[in-house]
Write a structure and sequence with these properties.
Elements: H1 3-16, H2 20-29, E1 39-40, E2 62-67, E3 73-79, E4 84-89, H3 103-110, H4 115-121, E5 137-141, E6 144-154, E7 159-164, E8 169-175, E9 182-187, E10 195-200, E11 221-227, E12 233-239, E13 246-248, E14 254-259, H5 268-271, E15 276-283, H6 284-292, E16 297-299, E17 302-306, E18 314-320, E19 326-328, E20 334-338, E21 345-349, H7 353-357, E22 367-369, E23 377-382, E24 387-392, E25 397-402, H8 403-410, E26 418-423, E27 428-433, E28 445-450, E29 466-472, E30 479-486, E31 493-497, H9 515-523, E32 533-537, E33 540-548, E34 551-552, E35 556-560, E36 563-571, E37 580-584, E38 589-593, E39 598-605, E40 609-614, E41 627-633
Parallel strand pairs: 1-26, 12-17, 33-36, 35-41
Antiparallel strand pairs: 2-3, 2-31, 3-4, 5-6, 6-7, 7-8, 9-10, 10-11, 11-12, 13-14, 14-15, 15-18, 16-17, 19-20, 20-21, 21-22, 23-24, 24-25, 25-26, 27-28, 28-29, 29-30, 32-33, 33-34, 36-39, 37-38, 37-40, 40-41
This protein binds sulfanyl-(tricuprio-$l^{4}-sulfanyl)copper (K7E), dinuclear copper ion (CUA) and calcium ion.
Length: 636
């Protein structure tokens, strides 16, 4: 492609995306020079290399755990086909599975909410109906995925949740006190997870109980460490500025969080005032010693250490300018801090951090390279061969660059660390390599999660999908091989080799997920796997029924108007993929019952009449006939 064509391409890209917000961002970054490096023209992207095609009946090599952003869910996608395989509801209310309606899910969603939230939700809805899930990460043992859990954040309602990988259902949701807007979330990688690290992005008064409303100087941001096994908060550290993204090292010693608001501002202008913000480095041992030594203050039931200013627990390392993503390389040595409004990525050498905390070296002495890569670096991924892949949001490109050469250039040698720039469509946020967030990075695939799809698909109206692009990185050159649209909004993804994850085919009858229903049935003298019967307990009615394709154990049951009815359905089929459902007409009640699972929902039967219930998960040739009547007798 000629220089002129290249320029035209750049211009058209920017014109189309010239919204106010982007224009502002471009304006801010406009003072920086765009660095060199060849742009790969689309027509030069050859067809050889790995195939993304997975033939009918064949399986993908990787699971991708994709965040659903403000949809509040996690999605499982197969790679390289990029077929969506499943959705796991977490922070959302979900119709097909009854997540947020079944007694089992309501318990998980509400038992660890803050007291003020429980008060706030009274009379509104049993659960929050929204969430904003950015960062799904699988638990580690010894620096790689162990297939136990997936941890996720909710920026919208300040929560952290855990998904059990054996059943692929959310099993714990906690709300974090003192912090607000949990954004960055990462896990301890060594010796195992360990801690879940959660960044409170917003600074607020602590405690946030009506004090210091407009005295911004008293606001603070909170870093939280959660015990991955118990999902209880281990400790918090109050810090200067704010906390955006986070990552941890491979030694189990340090965590790193970016701050774009060192100014402590409350408006956009204020947050962009300074040339330099920082990355906050947390010293886990010093923090544990501080907490054990009684240095923490208990606030809302949590031990909070004071990490403001000079202190033993954290160091503030100056980084230009509103940095965003932070990514630890699989070599365990380097941590990349992505500049966002600065065209640079700052490379931290982890081996220097002990000296930093011992005050033997200065903060900036741990930076060993700072390559200028292009406009709007947000996140960096790795191939395990010493090369990095950084998304350039404003340039709509992925830039491949070499760590060793970046360090040489930083030391004054005349080398260009940039290997290639590849156009992506358009405006990438996170990107991810296969197994690239573990020490087993295999350098085969790169996924670019682009915020805008614009002209890549048929027009579906003003609201457009986003665009995820699959790039072959197995050779010397990056090759774009596949586009797929996504709905709001994959921020982040974790690419897990299929060998790391083996969920169950059918539920185990002793699963704690429905232990409450099992205990209640025992009290009621009901055998869940055999009995279908109605137990009356004052105005509370428990309706137990089995389900075996294509019939419920009860084809009718009778209650009185005003009764509080709990329907408990047990799926007695023990066949792989044989899920039943329970859906009650006009009552807004519907839920999934997986093979060998029990599920339940509670509602008030306040409409007299005949109400059909039916199985809404297709299970049998006579699935349409799998139904019954709830008969509600009017109040006399
Ligand atoms: Cu960059 Cu929330 Cu990880 Cu979005 S964050 S892109
Ligand atoms: Cu049972 Cu459909
Ligand atoms: Ca700033």
């Amino acid at each position: 492609m000629s220089k002129t064509e290249d320029t035209k391409l750049q211009v058209s890209r920017r014109t189309v995306l010239g919204s106010t917000a982007l224009a502002t961002a471009v304006g801010v970054a406009g003072g920086f020079a765009v660095s060199g490096g060849g742009v790969t023209p689309a027509k030069a992207q050859a067809k050889e290399g790995q195939s993304w095609v997975v033939e009918p009946g064949e399986l993908d090599e990787y699971f991708v755990l994709v965040s659903g952003g403000h949809s509040g869910e996690v999605r499982i996608v197969g790679l390289p086909s990029m077929r969506e395989l499943m959705r796991i509801p977490v922070f959302n209310r979900e119709s097909a599975t009854g997540w947020g309606q079944t007694n089992e899910s309501i318990k998980i969603l509400t038992e660890n909410l803050l007291p003020e939230t429980k008060e706030y939700l009274k009379g509104k809805s049993p659960v929050y109906l929204n969430g904003d899930l950015h960062h799904p990460h699988m638990s580690f043992t010894d620096g790689t995925y162990d297939g136990r859990y997936i941890f996720v954040n909710d920026k919208a309602n300040t929560r952290v949740a855990r998904i059990r990988c054996d059943i692929m259902k959310t099993d714990k949701v906690i709300q974090i006190p003192n912090a607000q807007g949990i954004h960055g979330l990462r896990l301890q990688k060594y010796p195992k997870t360990g801690y879940v690290f959660a960044n409170g992005e917003e600074h607020v008064p602590v405690p946030n109980d009506g004090r210091d409303l407009t005295d911004v100087s008293k606001y603070t941001s909170i870093f939280t460490a959660i015990d991955a096994d118990t999902m209880k908060i281990s400790w918090q550290v109050a810090v200067d500025g704010n906390l955006d993204n986070v990552d941890a090292d491979y030694q189990g010693k340090y965590a790193f969080a970016t701050c774009y608001n060192s100014e402590g501002g409350v408006t956009l202008d204020e947050m962009m005032k300074k040339e330099m913000d920082w990355v906050v480095i947390f010293n886990l041992k010093a923090i544990e010693e501080g907490v054990a030594g009684g240095k923490a203050k208990e606030i809302n039931g949590v031990q909070v250490l004071d990490g403001h200013g000079k202190n033993p627990y954290v160091r503030y390392v100056p980084i230009a300018n509103n940095p965003h993503g932070v990514n630890t390389a699989p070599d365990g040595r380097y941590v990349m801090v992505n500049g966002k409004l600065s065209p640079t990525v700052s490379v931290i050498d982890v081996t220097k951090i002990d000296d930093l905390f011992a005050d033997k070296i200065g903060e900036r002495d741990i930076i060993v390279a700072e390559p200028e890569l292009g406009l709007g670096p947000l996140h960096t991924a790795f191939d395990g061969r010493g090369d990095c892949y950084t998304t350039l949001f404003l340039d709509s490109q992925v830039v491949k660059w070499n760590i060793a050469d970046a360090i040489k250039a930083f030391n004054g040698e005349k080398v260009d660390p940039i290997r290639q720039k590849l156009d992506v469509h358009y405006q990438p946020g996170h990107n991810h390599t296969s197994m690239g967030q573990t020490k087993e990075a295999d350098g085969k695939w790169l996924l670019s999660l682009n915020k805008f799809s614009k002209d890549r698909y048929l027009n579906v109206g003003p609201l457009k999908p986003e665009n995820d692009q699959l790039i072959d990185i197995s050779g010397d050159e990056m090759k774009l091989v596949h586009d797929n649209p996504t709905f709001a909004e994959p921020h982040d993804a974790t690419i897990v080799h299929h060998s790391k994850l083996q969920p169950l085919q059918i539920w185990k009858r002793d699963d704690p997920f429905f232990a409450d229903a099992v205990a209640q049935a025992e009290k009621d003298g009901v055998k869940l796997e055999e009995d279908s019967k109605v137990i009356r307990d004052g105005n509370k009615v428990r309706v137990y029924m089995t389900s075996v394709a294509p019939a419920f154990g009860l084809t009718e049951f009778t209650v009185k108007q005003g009764d509080e009815v709990t329907v408990i359905v047990t799926n007695c089929d023990d066949v792989e993929d044989l899920t039943h459902g329970f859906c009650l007409c006009n009552h807004g009640v519907s839920f999934e019952v997986g093979p060998q699972a029990t599920a339940s929902a509670t509602f008030t039967a306040d409409m007299p009449g005949v109400w059909w219930y039916y199985c809404h998960w297709f299970c049998h040739a006579l699935h349409m006939e799998m139904k019954g009547r709830m008969i509600v007798e009017p109040k006399s």
